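Let's practice the habit of predicting before peeking. Look at the sequence and jot down your guess about where helices and strands might fall. Then scroll down.
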Amino acid sequence: MSLGIQALLAVLPIVAAAVTLIGLRWPAKRAMPLVYVIAAAVGLFAWQMSPTTVLASTIQGLFITFDILFIIFGAILLLNTLKHSGAVTAIRSGFAGISSDRRVQVVIIAWLFGAFIEGASGFGTPAAIAAPLLVALGFPAMAAVMIGMMIQSTPVTFGAVGTPILVGVKSGLFNATLERDLALAGMTFAEYLQMITVRSALLHAVAGTMIPLLMVMMMTRYFGKNRSWTEGLSIFPFALMGGLAFTIPYALTGVFLGPEFPSLLGGLVGLAVMTLAARRGFLVPKDTWDFAPASEWSADWMGKLEIKLDALTDGRKISTAMAWLPYLLVAGLLVLSRLPQVPLGSMLKSLQFSWANILGTSITASTTPLYLPGTIMIAVVLITFFLHRMTPRALGAAVSDSSKVILGAGFVLIFTIPMVRVYINSGMNELGISSMPVAMAEWVAAHVGGVWPLFAPTIGALGAFIAGSNTVSNLMFSLFQHGVAEKLLLSGAMVVALQAVGAAAGNMIAIHNVVAASATVGLLGQEGNTLRKTILPTLYYVTLVGLIGFVLLNVFQVSDPLAAMHAARVGVLK
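Done guessing? Here is the structure:
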């Protein structure tokens, strides 16, 4: 089977997802079972995967599905608990005190608070937390999901305390041959990984600075009464400051401290700076932008998550500080559980359920339920019960409301995630050929030659679209991207950085992330509408970063010691 035929067959599940979700506007609960069947059929008949391998991949996907549903449940339960304690009312009033302008709220709550949560936890948690919080503050559910998905861009490469780099790139790239070549070039692998980190941080700092402005402009264009881009553009100075308040400390942290803390520190510094600026009216427009009354909203904007303020609170009032405390506890506990220097993470990981060599294959599945962000959020719910002096009836109502939301998301994800695992595990086949994602990437590399840097971020985004994970995309493609760079005598560190940045941008269109975020606001069935919107910032990101990479590598001839050594071997010094 030629590489072209492999690529054509491999793209079929992706085309099926795009056509059904975006073109035909099918709900994910209808589209994803079909996409799973197509992926399994291509794996069985074209890649000659054994039925056992397909089944084992499906089981592996179900383990991951449990993890995602648990995170969704924790996020919804926390919000519903705060709703029934009266905290949501206090949070809403608190933000009205800072600014009642929805554009300002997007910059502070979604962009900066969401980025901090991404830095602490990753794995879709920011959208799961921020989207229902935005709905509670009066945003349309679809607007909240769109904005929640856009959070998952710039912060993602260094999300979950650097996991996409420390696990994705490191595990995907490291091998004995590379380590030997680096030693000959006078570098250690750790130094090379830091070089990738620095280049990723700087690329993100350029592209990511404009993301809060894009968030606001897309909100005013798609959900404003006047459907206006310019109403969002009018907050340009404040949004630009919000972008820089995050990306400057983010880039400096990546350059000087490494991959663990850029998103965490960028989010914290940005929150402090922009909250103070908003309170003092610095760069805030004189006009105040808001949505039209809810009675005028389109039906497809509305989710099933109802936020009835002061429900079951018995008239009690919660201070703003006490209302925000549960979210601060979530952020703090997530950070503590992810820092290797603190024993909390290893304690939580001690409870593990795993299935090694599923059905006799080399595929392994595992879950560490206590380590999941969902457990942290449930623990904070219990703390909140006492802090906010809730009644058992109020907590019971929160649990009941949250449980109902999980059913719809569960049905979609039990097809979506197993499809992803079949796709990724298709490298285990009788023909000895590469997996479906790698076959597509190899075909592109074979046909674009020296302009590869333009396409490298798109390959990373494609991996994240398929897998719903920057980390998994980096695991799949880092070594491949490095190999292409080596053949073209380009800097491998720069090309892998382009991969990592593109994979972060791809999270904005990752299907199961859209499903998860939609579930938290009760908006299942509108996934295609969300994807049609979030494809725009994704294209902006991969195009801009690809152009920057192309110019740096082919015009300014940015290199690294390893690339210089390889070039010298063939008599061409880059």
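How did you do? The first strand starts at residue 353 and ends at 355.
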